[in-house]
Design brief:
Elements lengths: L6 E7 L2 E8 L2 H15 L5 E7 L4 E6 L4
Antiparallel strand pairs: 1-2, 1-3, 3-4
């Protein structure tokens, strides 16, 4: 059975949570991650992170760590 909240997408601005989303499919979650970057990535202080909650691992983060 697919966990509908396995892939967690979060957007923070200056460290404050602004948006969250959860998906059961990694392909969909990655497409949303890319979309969020395009729509909200220009805001200073923005950080967008995709996490696999089941594995407890970050899959993608924007912007890249220095």
């Amino acid at each position: 059975m697919m966990d509908s909240q396995r892939y967690h997408l979060s957007l923070t601005c200056d460290g404050r949570p602004m948006m969250h989303g959860w998906w059961g499919d990694e392909t969909t979650a990655r497409r949303k991650w890319t979309s969020w970057i395009g729509k909200r990535g220009g805001v200073p202080g923005t950080r967008i992170t995709l996490t696999d909650e089941e594995a407890g691992a970050a899959l993608a983060s924007w912007p890249d760590e220095p």
